[in-house]
Amino acid sequence: MNMKRIIVLLVVSMFAVGMAHAQLQVGPYFSIAAADDEYGYGGGIRGVQPLTENLLLDFRVSYLSYLHNDAVPVELGLLGTASTGSCQWYAGGGCGYYIYMLDSETLDDTAEPGFFVTGGASLTVTDGVRLFAEVK
């Protein structure tokens, strides 16, 4: 099965789960990343499921384009939160599977698991719209 089809299937599945479960928040995001003195850009779909009042399950599927290759991170994390008004601060970590492609059709042999630590803030703009910024 083509990698693009797998990614589309994951994204559609995330939206279907989001519609079935009212507390699950699913939405698109834009990303800028730096790796090995090279900047990449792209976007993805992020899902956040509250587990308790101050604990979130965070999952993402992204597509990042760099000068020499593209990357598809699929990540799952656990975030601790603290709220101040309409701003929610969070920190946590998780694991992911990182797929690196030389071009849009060929997978490189460097698909590998990994771990991450993250922290950031999420601001409620209106009902159903949040902006977030983070460092990973």
Brief synopsis:
The chain is 13% helix and 65% strand. It is built from one helix and seven strands, in the order H-E-E-E-E-E-E-E.
Q: Your description of this structure?
A:
- With 136 residues, the protein is mainly beta.
- The chain has one helix at 3-20, and strands spanning 25-35, 38-52, 55-65, 70-84, 87-101, 112-126, 129-135.
- It has a seven-stranded antiparallel beta sheet.
- The protein is globular, with a radius of gyration of 15 Å.
SSE blueprint:
Blueprint: H1 3-20, E1 25-35, E2 38-52, E3 55-65, E4 70-84, E5 87-101, E6 112-126, E7 129-135
Antiparallel strand pairs: 1-2, 2-3, 3-4, 4-5, 5-6, 6-7
Widest beta sheet: strand line-up: 1-2-3-4-5-6-7
- Rg is 15 Å
Strand content: over 45%
Largest sheet: 7 strands, antiparallel
Helical/strand content category? mainly beta
Overall geometric form: globular
What is the average per-residue confidence, as pLDDT, rounded to a whole number? Answer: 83
Unreliable stretches, pLDDT < 50, 5 or more residues? none
Q: Which oligomeric state applies?
A: single chain
Number of helices: 1
Question: Helical proportion?
Answer: 10-25%
Counting DSSP E segments of at least 2 residues, the number of strands comes to 7
Distance between the termini: 31 Å
Helix and strand sequence? HEEEEEEE
